[in-house]
Amino acid sequence: MHEKRPLVEALEKFHSQKNISFHVPGHKHGVLSNLPEVIKDALSYDLTELKGLDDLHHPEEAIKEAEELLASTYGAKKSYFLVNGTTVGNLAMLYTTCQYGEQLIVQRNAHKSIFHAIELVGVEPIFVTPEWDSRTKTTTFVSANTIKSAIEEFPLVKGVLLTYPTYYGMASNEIKEIIDYCHTKGIPVLVDEAHGAHFKANSGFPLSALDYGADIVVQSAHKTLPSMTMGSYLHMNSSIIKVSQVNKYLRMLQSSSPSYLLMASLDDARSYVQRYNEMDFKQLLYKRDLFIQALQTIKLVEVIEVNDPLKLLIRVGSYSGFQVQQALEAQHVYAELADTYQVLIILPLLKKDQDYPFAEVRKRIKMAVDELKKETPIIPKDIRNKSFKSVSTIEMNMSLLNEKKGEWVPYVRSIGRIAKGILIPYPPGVPLFIPGEKITISMLTELEEWIDKGATFQGDHRLDEKLIYVVED
Ligand SMILES: Cc1ncc(COP(=O)(O)O)c(C=O)c1O
Predict the structure, then answer these.
(1) How remote is the CA of residue 441 from the centroid of ligand 1, in Å?
(2) Helix (H) or strand (E) segment spanning residue 470
(3) Burial 416-449 (b: 16+ CB within 10 A, else e)
(4) Residue 385 — very low, low, confident or very high, per pLDDT cuts 50/70/90?
């Protein structure tokens, strides 16, 4: 059973026949393509719903079997392959749980796909603010107390949507208390576990939210498993949410021509998790420890470990993470992301017989640091999550905002107005205001402080001109 990859096998079987294509896709097994030869070769497997290859939206054969193996590997009642990333899983999760005007508790720093889903569905979000962790200098999880007070204040909520683990690999088991509490109230817990698809590979990783009893969990297999980009999983373990509803929305939101290459890579990634053994994990930790030790012998370099052993934070003296990232890229070492303080790297989920050029990486990081020393360090000031309200609502439904015109107004004139854009200071990566929220004096005071301390901003802004995007009066 462990070696089984039903969809990969079905594709190989089909491919081994002398097939002549009079069907889509138009590249005809790659023959018409002008892409490099290796890609053309791969296109000969880029097939469609042909005999023996099943259908993602009505699975009866290989895809059904592959998804059943997925569910049994992850301990879910039902699991799905997703071909548009966790983005589509998040959309489906919201459509399944809420209707227009219904309330949902949402982590304030949720991924943009969740904000898009809130807007598309017309959900009334109740935002809850996550905690700041000063060791990793990152925003982490929402406390159980915050969720409990949000539910006490808004008992009619249709669900609670959390991000677990964080992008930076922080994962608190407080999520169990949250899930248990919500279930006593009959409230489903939906989890964006984009960064936790590998947790099932070994008990040395944090537990998946599925193991803590979450109702729906979506994972980006492509982020940490050997799946192609856009490959994700959606798992269900709910006695509250109906499988038929999830089916319905996944059919609506996903392509009717899903990529077989992508789906085969999801089948392969599941088998990778299933075959990942104790020795693989031990060896991975061993190589990781040696790598950390080697990095720490470089003067100024500091390595910060997080809950997920596949992730490491690297800081270099008083240089900002952006400076470090640039210096690394000059040596052709590409980190996952940089922030004011550090860079985040994602290690490969190696099996015991696989190697990675850690010694070479150490050499290049040393060269990067030597180059960096010629620059002036941009000493990051201590900016962090300050006085966000722990529970808050919006004034205007995001779906209505589309019908309203927006205007750019000076800071002072924005007080009491409704934000039309989002503004996210980094750190902490938690939106200062969200479309539909009323702008307050304290938000503006904080904004000035963040600017003063050198935070960077994402979202809709013209801060150089001291203008804010609001709904026209
Ligand atoms: C927390 C979180 N959720 C969802 C997504 C979207 O995932 P995908 O790229 O698989 O659509 C991301 C992507 O970075 C993410 O970080």
Answers:
(1) 32
(2) strand 467-471
(3) ebbbbbbbbbbbbbbbbbbbbbbbeeebbebbee
(4) low
List, in order of start, the domains of the chain with CATH numbers: 62-251 (3.40.640.10), 278-372 (3.90.1150.150), 394-471 (3.90.105.10)
Beta strands, E only, 52-188: 78-82, 103-107, 124-128, 132-133, 138-139, 160-163
Pick from 32-36, 374-378, 427-431 the range whose average pLDDT is largest.
Answer: 32-36
Residue 348 confidence (pLDDT): 98
Given ligand 1 and candidates 195, 217, 219, 220, which is best to mutate, with the most ligand atoms within 8 Å of its CB?
220
Nearest to 146 by CA among 190, 172, 107, 185: 107
Residue 105 tokens read as 């508790």
Specify burial of residue 402 (Cβ count, 10 A radius: 0-12, 13-18, 19+): exposed
* CA gap 90, 451 in Å, rounded: 32
In testing the pocket of ligand 1, which one of 84, 87, 232 has its CB within 8 Å of the most ligand atoms? 87
Q: Is the CB of 109 under 6 A from ligand 1?
A: no
Q: Report which residue type is found at 126.
A: I
The answer to whether the peptide bond before residue 427 is cis (omega within 30 degrees of 0) is yes
1 — pLDDT class (breaks 50, 70, 90): very low
